[in-house]
Write a structure and sequence with these properties.
Strand content: 5-15%
Order of helices and strands: HHHHEEHH
Structural class: mainly alpha
CATH class: Mainly Alpha
Strand order of the largest sheet: 1-2
Radius of gyration: 19 Å
CATH architecture: Orthogonal Bundle
Number of strands: 2
CATH topology: Arc Repressor Mutant, subunit A
Distance between the termini: 45 Å
Number of domains: 1
């Protein structure tokens, strides 16, 4: 009979994908813990939309859906929720009146500043055992891996 192993401490340090996945999950756990502790009513999916709009400017819903790997219905519901909170607004596209763009409101910008602090705290926790040189090297190596994968058809 095979012994049941707990998944809690599962590690596979030989798999880049698994290692990055575990780091991502732990960062999300820290971010969501801070969100909940502050009584903020936003989740990570909404955070990603707010971040994209804050850093890249207004976007079309379809582009957001493709980038975030959501179907159109899920993206529409997410945008409805953000709009109901007053964080985003739908506006007619400047060149194509049949299309809409999504942009942050002033409240959305405020939410972005708050959310950015959650990410910064989680990142600082994750990197606290690394000195400045190690941090720079880690980011350099990860960017090189990302760039290699981005350039691979």
């Amino acid at each position: 009979m095979q012994k049941h192993l707990s998944l809690e401490g599962l590690r596979d340090d030989s798999s880049l994908a698994f290692l990055i996945w575990r780091i991502r999950e732990n960062l999300l756990r820290l971010i969501e813990r801070d969100i909940e502790a502050d009584g903020n009513e936003i989740n990570y999916s909404k955070y990603r939309v707010v971040k994209i709009l804050a850093t890249c400017g207004p976007q079309m819903p379809g582009e957001l859906a493709r980038f975030l790997q959501h179907n159109a219905g899920a993206m529409s519901r997410l945008l409805d929720q953000l709009e109901a909170k007053g964080y985003v607004q739908r506006k007619p596209h400047e060149q194509d009146r049949r299309a809409l763009t999504i942009e942050l409101t002033a409240a959305g910008q405020d939410q972005w500043r708050t959310m950015k602090k959650y990410m910064e705290r989680a990142q600082e926790t994750a990197l606290r055992d690394l000195n400045a040189g190690d941090r720079a090297k880690l980011f350099d190596l990860l960017k090189r891996v990302r760039d290699t994968l981005d350039a691979t058809p």
